[in-house]
Amino acid sequence: MAAGEGRALAPEEIVRLDDGPDGVAVVLLDQRRLPLERVELRCTSAAEVAEAIRTLAVRGAPAIGIAAAYGMALAAGRGEDLVAARAVLAASRPTAVNLFWALAELDAWQGDPAERARAIHCEEVERCRRMAEHALELFAPGVRVLTHCNAGGLATGGVGTAVGAIIRAWEEGLVEHVYADETRPLNQGARLTAWELEQAGVPFHVIADSAAALAMARGEVDLVVTGADRIAANGDTANKIGTYGLAVLARHHGIPLVIVAPTSTVDLATPDGSGIPIEERDGAELTARFPARNPAFDVTPAALIAAIVTERGIHRAPFLDLSPAAPRQGGSPAGALS
Ligand code: MRU
Questions:
Q1: Which of 44, 46, 102, 260 allows an S-S link to 161, with CB 3.0 to 4.6 Å?
Q2: Is the pTM of this model over 0.90?
Q3: Residue 188 Cα, ligand 1 centroid: separation in angstroms?
Q4: Does the annotation mark 229 as catalytic?
């Protein structure tokens, strides 16, 4: 099937628990093949789901959590050893806290794991919708936005965080143009964000990661919006490698950086970014010829973040209101960031 049908993917087209004739399976749209091909991957064990997460067939923090929840439901449905299933899923990737959050949700659930896993998927999509509505007030009319990696529906099981907010703002006529960083080394921006923006009809250009500074210096970027893989209690935020550099550039040029991420990405048990585990991926993703280091994420200090949008609202430094128990505070935003 050729990729690209001009409409947003339904949540179940991205990841689902499937009760087929051959038994229960987790079915994933294989993101490694996009945008060239739209191919589904059928996982029939928790180990296969873990391998799909490890190899980025499914990626993006909320989508990883959803896939892991479905992986536990699959393991239960097929009578696997649930302790071993949980362990293999938990070992698949270290940085996105949504993985561990979703596994803990399943641990605490007394009923049918499939029911809770499907509910987690629905809840994450609903959180994205709410974030996109909250984020609208941060987009001034005519804004030119830069985003990094892929934080669209593919990364969340539907709708998206940063890209969901950008598309929603574009629907309201607020966004003039989007720059999508290519996002080396695996090009989630040039492959996935570009594909999603194209599907939505949003005007955009892919730029090399190293072109962001020039775009900012030329006055071509008004706002930087990204997702997150883990937000520490103080607001320090881990996201795809290169986000920290963008944040420094944005601060230098007086451009606000906004993070859009659900509370399932907030890790209150980690006080600050120094405690966030950073995934080191195979150097062969960079070069097969030479030794290479390949950290997949970096941490942007809270001081460089203008606002964090969760489904609960807009949070501003010092981000004391990220706790689900805390009353919303930090002041309501006075319209678009400038
Ligand atoms: O390595 P990836 O592709 O899983 O990294 C994903 C990101 O860094 C995303 O920006 C992040 O998960 C936010 S997704 C809504």
A1: 260
A2: yes
A3: 8
A4: yes
